[in-house]
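WARN  no MSA supplied for this record, continuing single-sequence
INFO  ligand: 1,3-dihydroxyacetonephosphate
INFO  echoing inputs
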Amino acid sequence: MTTRRPLIAGNWKMNGLKASLGEISAIAAEAAASPAVDVALFVPATLIAPAAAAAPDFLIGGQDVHENESGAHTGCVSAAMLVEAGAKGVIVGHSERRTDQHETSDTVAAKASRAKAAGLSVILCVGESLAVRDAGNAEEVVSAQLIESLPQEAASDWLSIAYEPIWAIGTGRVATVEAIDAMHRALRAALRGVIGEDADKLRILYGGSVNGENAAEIFAVADVDGGLVGGASLTAGKFVPIIKAARSA
Ligand code: 13P
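INFO  complex generated
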């Protein structure tokens, strides 16, 4: 039996206008009715303030943060800006940013540090490409990516990890329970090597085509402590069954 509280986080990516605030309120209401589960939504930067106002007791977060405190970085958002807008957390190192914005693991670690210093909780993402999966050494590669991306002050009270195989994101193709189990064990062992016993308290989420049908099976895996959900987090109708699956896992 794990003593880690499940975390079910939705990543809205580049989706969501004020017209979606009703969905956020409905998801927040379900979160309030699920005291044994932490629920969070990571919305576009423009939606953080209205979402936090619509659901003040709920964890609204951003999807990226700049590694510097302030300065000449056109288009970027600082940790203090996220906090002022009402964010309580942030995602760093999502594979879409590692690919589209060429973010390195060093940058991801710096972003996590900056967010922590501002009082934000952080979900740090790692995951392998299909080529790495097919080559048969995914655990080794993703463990190394995790260690490179970990900030020095990594600890379970502010940081969670999300394992998101790139080939499972938005594809409807989910990793097998066996593959998820092997990866999450490997990542926890890698964490133990860096932060010691606190690794047993740190949440490791699975992400990649999680939905209401497959969530229960995935959350039943011993080292899976919740999910990071993209497409199926955009409406209460799709997200609430995933929260309920975590409640009974
Ligand atoms: P999907 O759930 O749409 O596959 O997205 C997963 C993801 O990238 C969450 O960060």
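The mean pLDDT is 97.
INFO  checksum written, moving to next record
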